[in-house]
TrEMBL record:
Protein name: ZCHC4 protein
Single annotated GO MF: zinc ion binding
Residues covered by the GRF-type domain: 38-80
Residues covered by the CCHC-type domain: 442-457
Primary localisation category: cytoplasm
Source organism per UniProt: Galbula dea
GO CC term (a single one): cytoplasm
InterPro entries documented for this protein: Mlase_EEF1AKMT1/ZCCHC4, ZCCHC4, Znf_CCHC, Znf_GRF
């Protein structure tokens, strides 16, 4: 359901910088009960700010697409929308849904697997399994033939990753990280995994489950509808994690609720790897709703517990995530990816990945692979990376990026190894920094004029 449409006539320019590098100047006000909808479900309410103050009119914009090219929904909060425009919008939302429903895709899959290998085609242009009657229509498209059962069980290898940074940001786990997550989940005795935006983890679990005596099951929630071609309604829900919207309506929501609450809600864990550009507050609000779905089960005795969760996100979002989930801690494990040049593991001389796991599991329970250099710190009661030294003064293993940090007595904390204390600035910084001026782009929002520590989008 790509394609433009002119829903955003008037003022859409205000949403231009939305979620992009200018995100620091836009504040998310949240999901309003009466919010209008775009094809991606209820829109989110935003306001522009400058110097920490709300400026200008509040407006609604698409929750899922940070690029107007993908969805240009825009509406002022106080705007009067005419009946005609409302009707047009409804029509637009209806027509900008995928060509087949999930149910239809399930039926198509059933027919597809009955075909002999020689008739199993996958159109690469349309990213769709083709039935013989449809070949004609796709005759000038590139396609793959002889699609095997193994390929059908690994859709993340068959589909091309939607890398467009501002919307899907689909970065698939490297085998090393996927196997680590799977081993962790298995070793801790979990039986069900709610995979939110983790299609590769989901497929590894599902294909293992179909091959051997493996007891773990997964339910994938993802906005990438292409996956509905490969999974039944019990295995995949088309879901938007920025507004907790189930595209499949009440039935899909019920599938998710049942999955969470099965067996008294025991032995289930949620794993999520959202797009990093995503607003932490929107994600947190959705994750809390998923947690609440689980909490509503009739559980004896342990009412104060939280749904166990692994949230995979870059380390520099630590304070933001802890703000919303105070019970979480950040693990030292570096998560790496297949199709992301920057986020690959450092062991082979490549750059170190900044991506970590945030969890409400006790960090002492999460064993990190010793063969990759992780070790257990008995004082901190958690596994840390090899370079992460326990600081006697801070009384903690303080490195965030895996390198050995050093303590600054003036700053009263540990800082990056490349930093030195600057008496002008009264804090530690890179040796060649320009005092007071912070002209290098901020690490979080990319804008000049401030550093990560004072980024307005984190305030
Ligand atoms: N590392 C994971 C993939 C993470 S990439 C793995 O290998 O399994 C981010 C995932 O989130 C993608 O699958 C993408 O389709 C999904 N996604 C992006 N925006 C989303 C949204 N608004 N709601 C739900 N899922 C979303
Ligand atoms: Zn939208
Ligand atoms: Zn320590
Ligand atoms: Zn210092
Ligand atoms: Zn200075």
């Amino acid at each position: 359901w790509e394609g433009g449409g002119d829903m955003a006539a008037g003022g859409a320019g205000d949403a231009e910088g939305l979620w992009s590098s200018g995100a620091g100047e836009l504040i998310l006000l949240g999901l309003a009960p009466s919010a209008p909808s775009c094809p991606h479900g209820p829109a989110l309410l935003f306001v522009k700010t400058s110097q920490g103050k709300e400026r200008g009119r509040r407006f609604y914009a698409c929750s899922a697409c940070r690029d107007r090219k993908d969805c240009n929904f825009f509406q002022w909060e106080d705007e009067k929308v005419s009946e005609t425009r409302l009707a047009a919008r409804e029509e637009y939302n209806r027509t900008h849904q995928p060509p087949f429903t999930h149910r239809q895709n399930v039926e198509r899959y059933k027919s597809f697997v009955l075909l002999p290998l020689s008739k199993r085609r996958f159109c690469q242009e349309c990213q769709r399994l083709l039935l013989p009657a449809e070949w004609e229509k796709h005759s000038d498209h590139q396609f793959l033939c002889d699609i095997t059962s193994a390929q059908l069980q690994s859709p993340s290898q068959l589909l091309y990753p939607l890398e467009n940074k501002k919307t899907n940001a689909q970065y698939l786990f490297a085998d090393r990280s996927c196997q680590f997550l799977l081993d962790l989940i298995t070793d801790l005795g979990f039986r069900r995994v709610l995979s939110v935006g983790t299609p590769r983890l989901h497929e590894v679990i599902q294909s293992k489950a179909s091959q051997e005596d493996f007891r773990i099951r997964s339910l994938l929630l993802d906005i990438d509808f292409r996956y509905s071609q490969f999974y039944s309604e019990d295995e995949f829900c088309h879901y938007n994690m920025f507004n907790h919207h189930f595209f499949g309506g009440e039935a899909a929501r019920e599938t998710c609720r049942k999955f969470l609450c099965q067996d008294n809600g025991e032995r289930v864990i949620m794993v999520t790897d959202p797009p990093f550009g995503g607003l932490v507050e929107a994600l947190s609000s959705s994750f809390k709703k998923l947690m609440a779905m689980w909490k509503d089960t009739e559980k004896e005795g342990h009412n104060n517990q939280e749904l166990p969760m692994l949230w995979i996100f870059p380390y520099f979002f630590e304070s933001r995530i802890l703000e919303f989930f105070p019970s979480f801690s950040m693990l030292d494990y570096q998560v790496d990816y297949d199709n992301h040049a920057l986020y690959k593991h450092g062991k082979t001389g490549r750059r170190q990945s900044p991506v970590r796991i945030f969890t409400n599991l006790s960090p002492s329970m999460v064993v990190l692979p010793v063969e990759e250099g992780y070790r257990f710190c008995t004082v901190c009661q958690r596994y840390v990376s090899s370079g992460n030294q326990h600081c006697e003064i801070c009384n903690s293993c303080t490195s965030k990026d895996g390198r050995r940090w050093k303590h600054c007595v003036l700053c009263k904390k540990c800082v990056k190894p490349s930093w030195f204390h600057c008496n002008n600035c009264n804090c530690c910084a890179l040796q060649n920094h320009i005092c007071e001026k912070t002209d290098a782009g901020c690490f979080v929002c990319g804008k000049a004029g401030h550093k990560r520590s004072t980024c307005p989008s984190l305030s």
